[in-house]
Design goal:
Layout: H1 4-72, E1 89-91, E2 97-100, E3 119-121, E4 130-136, E5 142-149, E6 166-172, E7 175-178, E8 184-186, E9 194-200, E10 205-210, E11 215-220, E12 229-234, E13 244-247
Antiparallel strand pairs: 1-2, 2-13, 3-12, 4-9, 4-13, 5-6, 5-12, 6-7, 7-8, 9-10, 10-11
Length: 255
């Protein structure tokens, strides 16, 4: 049998052991709580970072939206001026389409009318600001698009280059070129179905785009426009019967 002293010692040892276990459990719990706290702090930091990133993306998207709205406000309702159309051109009643006809139309030969090349101008001219419009060229094998000054030569053979106050690009039988001096061959990724024309009159800029993919085609820069300018269209050849169509604008390129 154990003596009274041994029993007391055993009790003391048991109490010490229990106290040690309790302290160990508290230390473990404390360490676990600190680990959880560290994880929470890391999660909060990540959430704060994600929030900042989302706010930055939202700000960028808002900026793009505002820029697009500003650009869309620069769109103009371009229509064709029948008083300028070459007699071989046929215009739609709404002034949005033009094609080359087989026979000469019975129209008066006024000073405004082109009598040699198959040209036509837009009705509205511009002497300041910016404007943008698009032309469907699907199915066409020959066309010239751009802008021209008001006082261009309407009679006889006059080349469509900046020398004669035309700023335009051309497709002729599969070959694209900018009507610069000298002309500039254009190597395009694809065959545009719609061509966008953007003009910043005050900055002296005329830019052309593949309007379906916003691909930049060519720009005339540092242009000193001498006077009011007009949208310019040309299409010729009886084998080129698909019309040029001034089309509604759904997107607008961002310079």
């Amino acid at each position: 049998m154990f003596s009274s002293g041994c029993c007391k010692l055993a009790v003391v040892l048991v109490c010490v052991l229990l106290l040690a276990v309790t302290i160990a459990l508290r230390i473990t719990t404390l360490n676990f709580s600190r680990a959880e706290k560290a994880q929470l702090e890391e999660r909060n930091a990540n959430l704060t970072h994600d929030k900042s990133q989302l706010e930055a993306e939202l700000s960028a998207m808002t900026g793009e939206r505002d820029e697009l709205q500003r650009r869309l406000s620069e769109l103009v309702n371009v229509t064709l001026d029948p008083d300028t159309a070459n007699p071989h051109l046929i215009l739609s009643a709404d002034g949005k389409q033009v094609k080359h006809g087989d026979t000469r139309q019975n129209v008066p030969d006024t000073p405004k009318r082109f009598n040699y090349f198959a040209n036509v101008l837009g009705k509205e001219g511009f002497s300041s600001g910016k404007f943008y419009y698009e032309v469907q060229v699907k199915g066409k094998i020959r066309w010239i698009l751009g802008v021209a000054k008001e006082s261009i030569q309407r009679k006889g053979s006059t080349g469509t280059s900046p020398k004669n106050a035309y700023w335009a690009i051309m497709l002729e039988d599969g070959t694209y070129e900018a009507r610069a001096v000298p002309s500039v061959p254009l190597s395009l990724k694809g065959k545009p179905q719609r061509v966008g024309v953007f003009v910043d009159y005050d900055a002296g800029l005329v830019s052309f785009y593949d309007a379906d993919c916003w691909h930049h085609i060519y720009s005339f820069t540092n242009v000193s426009f001498p006077e009011k300018i007009y949208p310019f269209f040309c299409t010729w050849g009886n084998d080129n019967s698909a019309p040029l169509i001034i089309s509604p604008v759904y997107n607008c390129p961002i310079n």
